[in-house]
Amino acid sequence: MECPKCHKPVGDNDAVCKNCGLVLKADDARAKKSLFSPKKSSERKKEKAELSFLKGGTASRVLSGGGEAAVSGDKGLGFKLKLFGIALGAIALIVLIIVIIVNVMSKGGEKTAEKLSDYINKPVTAAEDKLEIHLKEESDFDGVNNAFAFDYIYEAEDDVKVDEVKYPEWAITVKVDDDNDITSVTYSNIALLEKNYKGIKTDGKISIDNYDEGDKLSKVLDGIGLDPYSVTYQILGKTYVFKYYYHTDNGDSRRVILTAVFDPDDKLEYITSTDVFPNDMSF
What we know:
Oligomer: single chain
Order of helices and strands: HHHHHHHEEEEEEHEEEE
Number of helices: 8
Shape: rod-shaped
Largest sheet: 8 strands, mixed
Radius of gyration: 46 Å
Structural class: alpha+beta
Strand content: 15-25%
Distance between the termini: 130 Å
């Protein structure tokens, strides 16, 4: 071995050249130290962070070719989908609220009539005070005043047209005795006749032979399968009236009024079916 500086022979294990004083093994010692000495804690943390990044899903997307733009795009798409879901949920909620409000409003008259029926044989003023309503002696609609018999009335503000005549959507008519005590309460669903004053169209005449005295109210109503045009509450029970029409084989239109009377226990007393001739235009 020779010295790299003076090129004179030196021993293989010599650390310093005896001729020129050049340190021969300093580089080797530093190299050994750098290769085998323990790494500083900061260096270890840096390596762990780099390994974690490489193992993570984000790095995988970056290494697969999407890069930061792909990551940003995924986040943007997810955010848009989330907003779209929230918007759909809000629309569904609004539709549900509207449906509920419409149903509540359409049942408002029927519920009020039921509550009024609790005051049968009691003064009209007592019912008005408790239910916080005002019963009028005259309807705001001439059609009602001419077609209905009543002492007091409570009616819907919205109107419908039946055979080109305006009526309230529904009306509650009240009859009283000489002491001004309520004797009967009738709820009339006039909107039922808006499409056709004859009532609801059916495939044919409804048979009343399927019902017997004592049948429960629910059985009769389910069997008829129509919304009642009116319900009258009295001290001795309830009377349901159904209006419908059907076409015969020769094309004629037949109009029918079906009446079912129930006792105070909601059991059928009797049921009738009456054909209405064209010259009978009464409600």
